[in-house]
Amino acid sequence: MSLLVVCPTCGERPFSEFSFGGELREVSSPDPAADFARVYLRDNVAGVQDERWFHLLGCRRWVTRSRDTVANRFVEG
Amino acid sequence: MGSLRFEGRRVETRDGDTIGSALFRHGVRTFSRSLKSHRRRGLYCATGDCANCLVTVDGVPGERACTTGVREGMRVQRETGWPSTEHDALAINDTLHWAMPVGFYYKVFVRPRWLWEVAEKVIRRTTGTGTLPVTAAAAPKPTRYARVDVLVIGGGVAGLAAAAAAEGRVLLVDEGQIGAAASDPATRAAIERFATQARAAGVELLERHAAIGIYEGPSVPLVGPDELVEVEAARVIVATGAVEAHGVFPGNDLPGVWLARGAARLAALHGVSPGDRAVVVANTDDAAASVQTLRDAGIEVTEVRGRVLEARGSKQVASVTVLTPEGRRAFACDALVLSLGWAPRDTLLRMSPDPEVSGAGDVVLPGCTLAEAAQSGRAAGGGRPVEPRLAEPWPILEEAGYVCVCEDVDVHDLEAAWDEGWTSSEILKRYTTATMGPCQGALCSRHLSSFAESKGAAAGAQGRTTARPPARAPRLEDLIGGVHEVIERRTALHERHVEAGARMDRSGVWMRPGHYGDTNGEIRAVRERVSIMDVSTLGKFWVAGRDARALLDWAFPLDVGAVAPGRARYLLALDEAGYVVDDGLLAALADGTYYLTSTSGGADRMEASLRNWADRLNLHVHLVNQTAHLGAINVAGPYARELLAALSQDDLSRAAIPYPGHAEITVAGVACRAIAVGFVGELSYELHHPRSRSVELWNALLDAGRAWDIRPHGLDALDVLRLEKGHLFVAQDTMPDDHPTKLGLDWAVARDKTSFVGKQALVRMAALPLDRKLVGLRFDGVPQRGAPLSVGERIVGRVTSCAVSDAVGASIGLGWLRTIDGAFPQALVAGDLRATVTPMHFYDATGERPRG
């Protein structure tokens, strides 16, 4: 337990209640080559990235949150 | 007045005693033997900072004698030394330094290899502290969670002042009792005053709870006597104070060498004299108070300032040499009391770089006055971080003496390690294990960095080593507390299975019947008559709303539009990489909504996936996870329809319930959705129904089924039945990177559909050569699941499922197979058996039987 994720239904909850959905990506790509990059090649930024979190042990809602991957904390916006 | 039992003897105790004070009064001077050299170690800090006085209390090892209060009749034992702590034959190790160089484990017993096996047994027996009570089953402690605006760790002057000044919900935690550790009257009075203020300000004071670490968040687990508290705090203020610096000189670990506050505390709080003739080395402003306390206790005190060069003594200290401003002076004494400088108790503070974590009092201003402590507390409480101040002077290392008392690392060891090339504080730590003992570097961490600094280590290689949890040793029951409880899910029919003699197996989180005592009989019942199985564990979902079909068409590779109301289809779930992650069924309901099932273990993932796509694509969909509130019973066998007819008035013909398809029917008075499918390869109906009616329905089916000698079947029978049909279990028969073509499941993919999850990946992979696939196998014996499949010396695959099938009259299986030179081999060796590749459908290859 540590990091808190803001869920629109449940409020601030420990990250251990959530399932991490990875960095926010496009939902589809125009062709197979672009799709390969979309699926396999992650940006892996050292800094702020948008991510998907699923409140598995709560309301089971997906949220998109911005997190600073260096400081490991969520940022507003 | 009371007593405790110490190694079989009665020891008198007084009110307020700790184990340490009671034993010391009784005459105990040696509390432990050191880790490697088996040197005598006595009370040293007396404030819970060092590890010299760890004892076993009522069978529980590792209790700190100096801070653990006495209880009537408690049994206390020392932990180290053989045959006893007092008379330790292994003290000979102290003369064998040459045989135990620094990096001992890396240098000795390397060759011959067998020597280590022997040596390890001896070493294990002679080192370490305490023995775990292996018979005691630890019950997990209950865990509670606390959300606060400010958590203050440490109930001294700075901590209490911080708590009183902080806004919002404030929790203050102390590992002991607030005020109990203060030995001088001024400090005690200040603590009382600020504690009253804090209480008046609404601060919650939590005593006898130790913070064992600061994790990101910040999040702080507190271990109490009867509970674990997980605190989430917006801000954390560490006010854990300071302890007198550990001095490093020859003889610095002798019993009778004390840190000043501890010696004063023993005299003031417990009426125990640390000695009759004490030399106090008073290099700090605080020392005057300790000197006064000791004099008040009637002890003859010699006060000096300067560098301690050496302490001598055999069982305990007898003389000391100090380099004073007036020159070298020697004193005879039975207590050497050190106030050399201040070592902040900053382990917790150094665990977190977060700006939300700050310090107050001695931990950031070591050696500060009461007024400074209060002022810094108020500042930190008000949200104004206090700039840390380094304590000077720091006692320098003499040419010999123990740096790390816990791990028996002395100055020579550090020098040797340095000469071997370990030239940074972090690497010195790892190589010598200094700072890695029970006190976690509380005394020696700064010595290590000052040693590196004095040696001219590169910038960045001389800093303090990283502190990590636990700051205080938690017990196993603390670690298993809270969130680690095993989840066990049971279906509504659990008790019925147990009554019927089923062996219940753990299958993911579910408990499921493996068999009811006769797997072959259960298989025959399905193939020849009729049988039922509890399949309530299947993931079950209802999908409705304007965009229900659009969602399912996107999420799955099948053509949802081609499934007419009343029909059902096999459902394959792919991930974005085009790999098979799950399978199930999709049933189109009459009102344009859908009902779908997933595997028992895949329910959460399927829900997460569907909700993700609905969210990302902005689809208007209602998804209801019905897994927990619907039960399901599969009725299977040639007489399945006759059995249902005996319990239902509804039309059960193929016109009413097509294959594969479904209908709403009433069975034994229970409303069911009957889904006609063929996983086991016989006529079968999955009856999905309200969970509350499961037992009733199950009983009615067993009752009416007597005419056909019905019996339930479990997972073991199911494994054979579906294998005979060549139906795979996702995860058991599949690899993480299996796309449908590798599994022979292309028929379940509507490739004409313009888009679905994994479509682009399938298009891309279709251009690649097929180098692995799942195949059917026949064996000339009974193989093992997991057996390698080989051609000559070359392993080309693995058996994923296998069974001896009566219905097929052969030993059959599934397995994956790689190509050799672009072609799949046909004749294989599985262990010591011959295996032949065959089509996967072993039983009823044309699929007539489930159509009924």
Kindly state the number of beta strands of chain A.
6
The computed structural class of chain B is: alpha+beta
- Counting helices, strands and paired strands, the structural category of chain A is mainly beta
The coarse overall form of chain A would be globular
Overall mean pLDDT of chain A stands at 91
**Beta-strand percentage range of chain A:** 35-45%
Major beta-sheet overview of chain B: 7 strands, mixed
Number of helices of chain B: 20
**Could you tell me which chain pair has the largest interface and how many residues each side has?**
A-B, 28 and 26 residues
Which word captures the global form of chain B?
elongated
Percent helix of chain B, as a range, is 10-25%
Give the overall average pLDDT of chain B. 92
For this entry, what is the oligomeric state of its chains? heterodimer
Radius of gyration of chain A, whole Å? 14 Å
Q: Based on DSSP secondary structure assignment, what is the total number of beta strands of chain B?
A: 44
Largest sheet of chain A: 4 strands, antiparallel
- Strand percentage of chain B: 25-35%
Adjacency order of strands in the biggest sheet of chain A? 3-4-5-6
Question: What's the helix and strand layout?
Answer:
The complex is a heterodimer of chains A (77) and B (852).
Chain A: E1 4-7, E2 11-14, E3 19-23, H1 32-40, E4 48-54, E5 62-68, E6 73-75
Antiparallel strand pairs in A: 1-2, 3-4, 4-5, 5-6
Chain B: E1 2-6, E2 9-13, H1 19-26, E3 32-33, E4 40-41, E5 54-57, E6 60-64, E7 75-78, H2 104-107, H3 113-126, E8 143-153, H4 157-165, E9 170-173, H5 185-200, E10 204-206, E11 210-211, E12 219-223, E13 228-238, E14 242-244, E15 257-259, H6 260-270, E16 277-282, H7 287-296, E17 300-304, E18 307-313, E19 317-324, E20 327-332, E21 335-339, E22 342-344, E23 357-359, H8 370-381, E24 402-404, E25 409-410, H9 411-419, H10 425-432, H11 445-454, H12 476-479, H13 494-499, E26 503-507, E27 510-515, H14 519-528, E28 531-534, E29 539-544, H15 548-555, E30 568-574, E31 580-588, E32 594-598, H16 603-616, E33 622-625, E34 630-636, H17 640-647, E35 661-667, E36 670-676, E37 684-690, H18 694-704, E38 711-712, H19 715-724, H20 759-766, E39 772-779, E40 788-791, E41 794-805, E42 810-818, E43 827-830, E44 833-838
